Amino acid sequence: MDLRVLQNFLLVAETLNFRRASEQAFIAQPALSRQIQQLEEQLGATLFNRTKRSVTLTPAGVYFRSEAERLVNGFRQSCRRTAEIHRGEAGEIRIGHATSAMQSILPRLLVKIHAQRPGLKVYLNEVSNKEQLDLLTNRDLDVGFAPNIVVPPDMDSRVVYEEPFVLILPENHPLTPDTFTSLAQVANEEFVLPPRPVGAGYVETLFALCREAGFVPRIAYESAHTGSVQRLVEAGLGVSIEPRSTLRGQNLRIRAIELTNALYQVEMTAVWLRDRTAELAPFFALLDGVLPTDGRFPVHESSEDQAKFAS
Known about the structure:
Elements: H1 3-15, H2 18-25, H3 29-43, E1 48-50, E2 55-57, H4 59-87, E3 92-97, H5 99-102, H6 105-116, E4 121-126, H7 129-137, E5 143-147, E6 155-163, E7 165-170, E8 190-193, H8 196-199, H9 202-212, E9 218-222, H10 226-234, E10 240-243, E11 254-258, E12 266-273, H11 281-288, H12 303-307
Parallel strand pairs: 3-4, 3-5, 8-9
Antiparallel strand pairs: 1-2, 5-12, 6-12, 7-10, 7-11
Helix pairs in contact: 1-2, 1-4
């Protein structure tokens, strides 16, 4: 089995037609058929159901297609990066992030990169914890920034900063910072929270905060997008719990109460594939230069504060 065989398999899997696949691969159809048969023999699995009228993927073929795509894409990326290193080019970094990361660590980091590595191309992708893990596994991201994420065994991580959670209420809610004593005071409220399947640890932390106060939150609406959550709270459709940094720059009719004595805090975590640690070392050197010395970010940060981290 070699890369060419994997590429030819993917052509057949895409076209579901041996003749068209052989034309695209510039190989005779009988030779392509033999390649696929030999591949199936090596794997000990049937990849295609073949009849005179159709070709379809078997369940094993569907699985192997996703794995082959990951391998081929990873090889192409490695070749591209090798050529960039040879030419002395800066390359690229693909960053996945939660909303709160863009309100805290990422602007500082991007200023630093622009100042010290101006040729480095940065691609940003705002996605959920679960999506970040999937994209990292498929090598479609280089590093992710996710809050309170559960990290798989094949990945490494580091907490880059901590911040408090805040209880978010409609502006006219009777509960105020002066009258607030515990989350138990909103036990009978309806909540707006992210769906559990996309949280990968984050949503479990929110539920743990509520359980600590003696209740399980009743979910009225679910959204993985911070902006949507805050809009729903503003409309009076529920209350929510968010990282404090998500309040930066917003001008909504909502009230926020900091959960200063809560059992859990927001832990913004950098996540990456363990086998890429050495490759990502220059990136983490830049990241180290913008982290707060006490591990916490202020609620408000001026443009002057951000600019100084470029030096």
